[in-house]
Amino acid sequence: MSNPDKKVIIIAEAGVNHNASMERAREMVKEAARAGADYVKFQTAVPELVISTIAPKAEYQKETTGNEESQLEMCRAIHLPLSAYAELAELCRAEGIGFMSTPFDLVSIDTLAALDMDYWKIPSGEITNLPYLRKIGSRGEKVILSTGMSTLGEVNDAVDVLEKAGTPRGNIYLLHCTTQYPTPMDAVNLRAMDALRLPGIGGVGYSDHTLGIEVPVAAVARGAMIIEKHFTLDKSLPGPDHRASLDPNELKAMVDAVRNIEKALGDGEKRVAEAERPNIEVARKSIVAARDIKAGEIFTEENITVKRPGNGLNPMTWDSVIGKRASRDFAYDSLIEL
Fold first, then answer.
1. Contact 113, 141 (CB under 8 A)
2. What's 2's DSSP letter?
3. Mean pLDDT for each consecutive 10-residue tract of the chain (338 residues)?
4. 32-48 pLDDT, tens per residue?
5. Residue 183: CB partners within 8 Å, gap ≥ 6?
6. Contact, 46 vs 103, CB < 8 A?
7. Cα(62)–Cα(52) distance, integer angstroms
8. Domains along the sequence of the chain with CATH
């Protein structure tokens, strides 16, 4: 899916919120399409290639899924098999929404390479994974790189790896992100998105993990070209990401709000909007007679004043009117003419 109108690209992040249910994943595709998102994005992984047996859970994962199982066991339970993504990509085409999925390992990259995605999405956790970055970079295709948990130096290093591997710098898009679920408002640091406008890159955006829709909408107002946001069919489902996700109605509200902000941003040129032009006569003022004025009288600050409507002499000409003679009689409140 292309973006010919230069609209903000909205990615509805399904992630692993399907909880390994293909039926739920299909429904998520349909809900993302109904909401008006440009893409629905999943997460593709062979858990054993991503997570070691000794890897602990993140604190937010412990809070949402308990501490009985390991991170590896948790991920095994919520990931779809690699064979599922071709079907999901086909369903996306049928529903008129773009398909994306984030690979978390080299085998998953090979699986997704056959599905003709418009963008490769690199998650924040892989920004220091040199072999992974080189493999995606060698494809030379468009890349969206999330930058959670990273310094600007690490972002620059990752961009350099992608570029040296074969991806043109203009094909790389950087998303500001805070990797905490949900992200506290005081940890968002939305202004850091501006620091990601590195020379020659394709653009910047924002991957959001806050509750609600205010921050992604604000990011669009600050110039984000891409917005990514988790969504779920049901926030009460078990799993690590549901609690920090939007439900379908909230996703639709976010999409609508982003589209409204796009319209509101305009082109930046200060001019009279066609929508306000009819109100000029109503809201502005003209020079009018402060009392009855006889022909031949000199206009003074006592016999003329400024009132609505605005279809007479512009009050900015006041100085040139003072001292002139009235060419005819003017009744009280009538528009002055020279």
1. no
2. -
3. 67 97 98 98 98 91 86 94 98 98 98 98 98 98 98 98 98 98 97 98 98 98 98 94 95 98 95 97 98 98 98 98 98 97
4. 999 999 999 999 999 99
5. 208, 209, 210, 244
6. no
7. 17
8. 9-265 (3.20.20.70), 272-338 (3.90.1210.10)
